[in-house]
Amino acid sequence: MKTRFGCALCAIILGLSFPSSSQFLNKLKQKAENKLENQVDKSLGTSQPNQTQGQGNTNSSGTGTNGGNGTNGNSSNNSGGGLSQNQGGGGLISTPPDVNQNLSDAESAYKGGKYGDARYSIQQAMLGVELEIGNKILKSLPETVSGLGKDAPSDQVTSTGSGWAGLTIVRKYTDGKGKDFRTTIANNAIWMSALNTYFNSAGYAQQTGGQQNWKQTKLKGNRAIIEYDQSSGYKLSVPIGQSSLIVFEGVSFANENDMMSAANTIDIDGIKSMLGEQ
What we know:
The protein has two domains: 4-56 and 95-131, no CATH class; 141-202 and 214-275, no CATH class. Helices cover 41% and strands 19% of the residues. It is built from nine helices and nine strands. The protein has helices at residues 4-15, 22-44, 52-60, 99-111, 115-140, 189-200, 203-206, 256-263, 268-275; strands at residues 144-145, 148-150, 156-158, 168-174, 180-187, 214-219, 222-229, 233-239, 244-251. α1 (4-15) packs antiparallel against α2, α2 runs antiparallel to α5 (115-140) and α5 (115-140) runs antiparallel to α9 (268-275).
């Protein structure tokens, strides 16, 4: 008979074959984060974890051999035993974790009593799903905004992999002559806290004259804060759920209306749906 852990994993694996609905995303968040990881946590309370895979990940993220050679490690003169200056190499390939494989590995590790390995694989599966969501959102963004073309090399999808609490998606649009528009979609508690400070402040309602550098507004029915700085231009911040927000930044836009028109080209409801936000 399958364990509850195994059944939950199988349900998620089956769900991954049909990843188009936001209901699946919410189901995955709840089952992967609450049921699977919680069961592993309970087991960790009475068993010694095996951290082999986790330690391997640490090595791959920056504690390689070059850093352990002292001050001569990057020197072109290797007479003292240090390494020569690197002259080439293609860098690292960005490869999202294989969700199905990690879920399978997690189930196998759990059944074998390797709880540290099981937890690591669950976290990697969650990271893989989050990166898939981020890439789908990035692809859904328009190719141009207000006559500005996308700057493809600056596209970014990053995640901390900590339970849907660190996903960031960035796209920049530019005319190559100093006019830029950048869209940042993020799940960031610090940014949300700062934004709520604006919403909770009564100062904006009391200022009726003169030049103000921020005010409350709306974008497609969503409350927002727009700011202006003489050196950096416009910034429009829009909450899109309990923990997610979109930040638009515009440089060298003629006025507030032009900035709002540019932001209006982004499908906010579509992004909400892909993130599973209400």
